[in-house]
Design brief:
Rossmann fold, five-stranded parallel sheet, two-stranded antiparallel ribbon, 53% helix
């Protein structure tokens, strides 16, 4: 084969790979967007609220929206137990889970209705810890509550961990530009995570940044 023909063939292969990659990303984007409306109120054993920012023991608006939605599900008898998650940033006095716990107690829930996971500092760690916590109690059927653009990824992570999960997403009220950035970020994370595994995706991020990764608040 001549050098010219080899270069031509290489260029065609490269274009095919790029086209397939773009198609894969586009399909994943559609899946992420569709999951935003996939709310579920089917009966479960626990409602899991993914952590978000807290301000000295008080939930941020994003976290409060998730907690209010979880309370609605609880009142609708979707599940008898709420699990709140999330550790804390350096310098914080409270974990995200502690802030969520206080909020739920102020809104009428008893200690027996709330479980806390306070170690996870990213989505995978939170869900992995929740899985261990619930499995020790013989519970696996859950409804996950988080921002709507986050729904598809937490569903995939939960199934990777062995949870029987449904997602009931919340609209975080972001601007159009912020929502677009979030969708691109989530699509990228899902695209890579499905290939290398979501646990390895977290490890890779830790290695690249040199610090333990943290689920973005914005």
């Amino acid at each position: 084969m001549s050098v010219g023909r080899a270069l031509h063939l290489g260029a065609r292969v490269l274009l095919l790979v790029v086209a397939l990659g773009l198609a894969y990303f586009a399909i994943t984007f559609v899946q992420v967007v569709r999951a935003m409306d996939a709310g579920s109120h089917d009966p479960a054993e626990a409602i899991v609220v993914l952590g978000a920012a807290q301000y000295d023991g008080r939930p941020s608006p994003r976290l409060r929206a998730r907690l209010d939605h979880a309370l609605e599900l609880h009142r609708d008898r979707v599940a008898p137990i709420l699990v709140v998650t999330g550790g804390k940033q350096p310098g914080d006095r409270f974990t995200e889970a502690a802030a969520s716990y206080r909020y739920l107690r102020e809104h009428g829930l008893s200690d027996e209705e709330i479980l806390r996971e306070e170690q996870g500092v990213n989505t995978w760690e939170q869900l992995a810890a929740v899985t261990r916590l619930l499995r020790s109690r013989g519970l696996l059927r859950v409804v996950l509550v988080s921002d709507d653009f986050h729904a598809y990824r937490i569903d995939r992570i939960a199934h990777e961990l062995g949870l029987q999960a449904q997602v009931s997403p919340v609209d975080p009220g972001l601007s159009t530009a912020s929502k677009a950035r979030a969708l691109v970020r989530e699509t990228t994370a899902v695209s890579v995570g499905r290939i290398i595994g979501f646990r390895r995706l977290v490890d890779l991020d830790d290695q690249l940044t040199g610090v333990r990764s943290r689920e973005p608040v914005g």
